[in-house]
Design a protein that fits this description.
By secondary structure, the chain is mostly beta strands. The protein has no helices and 29 strands. The strands form seven sheets. The chain has a five-stranded mixed beta sheet, with no helix packed on it. Strands 11, 12, 13, 14 and 15 form a five-stranded antiparallel beta sheet that branches. The termini are close together. One of its GO terms (cellular component) is cytosol.
Length: 321
């Protein structure tokens, strides 16, 4: 299997360089929120919108319960509504508010906070199907987590699912996708880079440790991931942490892999491109599945580089699947 990277030119005043932020594509627009330029210092709480047709940035006038600035935040979407959960604020406190953003009305709504729903966390992961928003893991007040929660968008109720058990270590920076009506936990960081895959079936509420085969990626975290058909596509990530922790840059990957969720077989994708068209090694990016010009793929924005410089470029990878 192969695929092609495309780098987008950007028009207008965009969010600028950042990492530990989030982006989500709804229709032909990508909504970016949160992040840092200086380690652990949230940049702003503006919602920046990138038009995937004319490649221009804008900052819409928004109303409602606007979230404060944060890093280590995640986003997902159902229909025209984006959901934002958690993160870490200016005082380095973990957060647990769930917000929605109506892209039609440009309105923020606070859906849950306080004692309701998942405990406070950042650097967790988030995914959704047509009915529920899912949250897994992250860095909590008392260490890393491995809990799975679901928020039903109709009842507006949280459900905590069973724990994956002892063979799944608590982790942050993992890949979380909904693929073939199951929830997949891929790799992550638990004091060390991890290379395991776990699968949760909501219909039976059971976990499975997935024994993967093939061209298996090395252990990694804070990579970009998206479910495309039966495939989980991953790009980049940290393969060796910095001895300075979050203040430094570890060693990053530039590789693209695909996991076939039917056969549990990994494949490294041929993503050859000119240097100017390839994102190169990076992690802590914002990413989202996207459909652009009838091609479904992975949109990647910004992140951290091997030199510890934050990045502000946008790439799209379309696999031949």
């Amino acid at each position: 299997m192969a695929g092609k990277w495309v780098k987008f030119l950007q028009k207008g005043l965009g969010p600028g360089a950042r990492s530990s932020h989030a982006i989500k594509v709804v229709g032909q627009k990508a909504y970016a929120f949160g992040g840092e330029f200086t380690p652990r210092l949230p940049v702003d709480n503006k919602l920046h919108v990138f038009d995937l047709k004319d490649h221009s940035w804008s900052v819409p006038k928004v109303i409602g319960d606007i979230p404060p600035p944060r890093v280590g935040v995640t986003m997902t979407s159902i229909g025209n509504t984006i959901y934002v959960f958690g993160g870490r604020d200016l005082e380095h406190k973990e957060l647990n508010e769930l917000y929605s953003f109506d892209t039609s009305a440009n309105e923020w709504t606070l859906l849950s906070s306080g004692e309701v729903g998942p405990p406070h966390r950042s650097y967790h992961s988030m995914a959704a199907d047509e009915q529920r928003v899912y949250i897994f893991g992250g860095c909590g007040n008392a260490g890393r987590l491995k809990d799975l929660w679901a928020f039903d968008i109709d009842s507006r109720q949280w459900t905590e699912f069973p724990s994956p058990g002892e063979n799944c270590r608590p982790r942050g920076g993992l890949g979380l996708t909904v693929c073939r009506e199951k929830i997949w936990v891929v790799y992550g960081f638990s004091g060390m880079e991890l290379n395991d895959v776990h699968c949760f079936d909501p219909s039976t509420e059971t976990w499975t440790l997935v024994e993967t085969m093939g061209e298996k990626p090395s252990a990694r975290s804070v990579f970009s991931a998206a479910a495309i058909g039966k495939w989980i596509i991953t790009y980049g990530g940290e393969v060796d942490p910095s001895d300075q922790g979050h203040l430094g840059a570890g060693k990053f990957s530039a590789e693209v892999y695909a996991l076939d969720t039917d056969t549990q077989c990994w494949m490294r994708l041929n993503d050859a491109a000119d240097a100017s068209e390839h994102p190169g090694p990076r992690g802590w990016c914002a990413f989202s599945a996207a459909k652009i010009d009838d091609k479904v793929g992975l949109l990647v924005y910004g992140g951290n580089s091997p030199t510890n410089d934050r990045l502000d470029d946008i790439f799209f990878f379309a696999p031949d699947v």
